[in-house]
Amino acid sequence: xxxxxxxxxxxxxxxxxxxxxxxxxxxxxxxxxxxxxxxxxxxxxxxxxxxxxxxxxxxxxxxxxxxxxxxxxxxxxxxxxxxxxxxxxxxxxxxxxxxxxxxxxxxxxxxxxxxxxxxxxxxxxxxxxxxxxxxxx
Length: 137
Description:
- By secondary structure, the chain is of the alpha+beta class.
- 18% of the residues lie in helices and 47% in strands.
- It contains one helix and nine strands, in the order αβββββββββ.
- A hairpin with a 5-residue loop joins β7 and β8.
């Protein structure tokens, strides 16, 4: 009976150790985090900036879309958005919605690759340029 009790405790200690290692790694769940900036220009096919286009940054996980940020382009078609302490998926979908019905909307998937982390849970910062050239309808 005593032999089985010791084996049982060894298994329990091993499982606790595995859970500790996984929780400290920050790679599973929402432990690790980073800061990112997404910026770019929205133009028509002639290269003219498109003002007031809506930009939506979404986290896509299989068929579930989770909104993270949204911003509008300025009068020259430029947009920029920053997210601090982001701990979600690193693949994001950037969606550009045309400001009027004269243009087709567009989207692109990007991967955030932070650098310069501190070696713990903070993975650093990332910047990604996303330019959209919207076609006429």
